[in-house]
Amino acid sequence: MFLAPPIYYDELMKKVPYGKIITVSKIRDYLAKKNHADFTDPMTSGIFVNIVAWASYQRSEDITPYWIVIPANVKHWHGARKDSCLSQA
Asked: What CATH number corresponds to the domain at position 27?
């Protein structure tokens, strides 16, 4: 199990191209693979994505596009199909 710090989520969320969306589970899978782990803790990843979003909301510069991260259990997100998510972050 890998416990990624919030800054890892922040960095990955900033790398998602404009107009694309990604799920938290895709981010978790990427981080686990990159760090040679079986999986990334789902509870802390949800908490850390929220921390990144709140911190970005409070900043006026260096905004993290937190709105591109969607829950894993949805089929459509405001008109975007879930299968249009990136396969890798």
From this structure: 1.10.10
